[in-house]
Amino acid sequence: MNIILIGAQGSGKGTQAEKLAQVLGVLHVASGDLFRSAIAQGTELGMKAKIYIDRGDLVPDDITVAMVLSRLQEPDCARGVLLDGFPRTLEQAKALDRGLQEADRFIDTAVYLEVPREILLKRLSGRYICRANQHIYNINTRPPKVPGICDLDGSELYQRSDDQGEAVQKRLDIFFNGTFKLLDYYRDEGKLATVNGNQDVEKVHKDLVKAITDRL
Ligand code: AMP
User: Fold this and answer.
1) C-beta of residue 76 within 8 angstroms of C-beta of residue 27
2) Which pLDDT score, from 0 to 100, does residue 129 have?
3) Phi-psi region of 208 (alpha: psi -120 to 50; beta: other; left: phi over 0)
4) Are the C-beta atoms of 3 and 26 separated by less than 8 Å?
5) SS3 of 147, please?
6) How far is CA 62 from the centre of its chain?
7) Rounded to an integer, what distance in angstroms lies between the CA atom of residue 61 and that of residue 55?
8) What's the mean pLDDT in 199-203?
9) Which of 68, 74, 76 is nearest to 97 (CA)?
């Protein structure tokens, strides 16, 4: 089972993807996490990507596609994956289809987690993640028990540079202007499901599971 979760920054995509991957028994592969770990390790790919990420721009398709397709070839992805943050452009979607086809695999469903822009802005400005494992908190809606410390692993919480200032607006513009075209692509293929992401976490989770299992 190969699923794509499409949603703007702050739509709850990361939180939902972790839960969903567990329930579906597939691996959660988040392109943003792959980039952040490459940056933390100081790899060449990480250094290249950091320039774009810090500005709030998309990393060029060739770099991104090569990184994700190579991750998908690793054995732990064989049972299926839940893709989070990738594809983000039409070119990436087509490259993903070609890459999967070569391995006799395909995308089952692309789910769009729909949240209005003004809600996204509010959520993003309060978002903090932990250094050790990228667990997600929100100082307004989902604060940690001890301020600044991750409940799950005790590591420090920080605000991503691209969750601050103008970078937030820019990333939302990119999503609503560009990534939106992806929805048409998967709709035309008969693979698109839409779930209302502006509900409580449990209800969104239930709706996501239903949207995916209904289509199997
Ligand atoms: P995310 O954690 O998904 O918000 O990703 C953080 C940043 O990594 C994005 O703002 C982009 O700069 C970069 N990035 C992640 N996934 C992609 C992608 N599929 N295409 C291009 N850039 C990406």
Assistant:
1) yes
2) 94
3) alpha
4) yes
5) coil
6) 18
7) 16
8) 95
9) 68
58 CB near ligand 1 (under 6 Å): yes
pLDDT surpassing 90 at residue 179 = no
Identify residue 74 by its one-letter amino acid code. Answer: E
7 CB within 6 A, ligand 1: no
Find the 28 Cα to ligand 1 centroid distance in Å. Answer: 15
Task: Please state, in angstroms and as integers, the Cα–Cα distance from residue 156 to each residue in 14, 30, 33, 164, following that order.
Answer: 19, 21, 17, 18
Taking the CA of residue 9 as reference, the ligand 1 atom at the shortest distance is: 4
- pTM of the model as a whole: 0.86
The answer, yes or no, to whether any atom of ligand 1 lies below 6 A from the CB of 162, is: yes
Domains and CATH numbers, the chain: 2-122+167-213 (3.40.50.300)
How do residues 113-169 score in pLDDT, each as one tens digit? 999 998 998 888 889 999 999 998 998 888 999 999 999 999 999 998 878 878 888
Average pLDDT (62-83) is 96
Cα gap 190→183, rounded to integer Å: 10
Q: Is 171 noted as a catalytic residue in this protein?
A: yes
Alpha-carbon span 188 to 55, nearest angstrom = 33
| Predicted pLDDT at 164 | 81
Q: What mean pLDDT comes out for the span 178-203?
A: 94
How far apart are the C-alpha atoms of 151 and 168, rounded to whole Å? 26
- Output the residue whose Cα is nearest ligand 1's atom 15: 32
d(CA 99, CA 102): 5
Please check the confidence at residue 178 and state whether its pLDDT lies above 90.
no
Phi first, then psi: what are they for 130, rounded to 5°? -90, 150
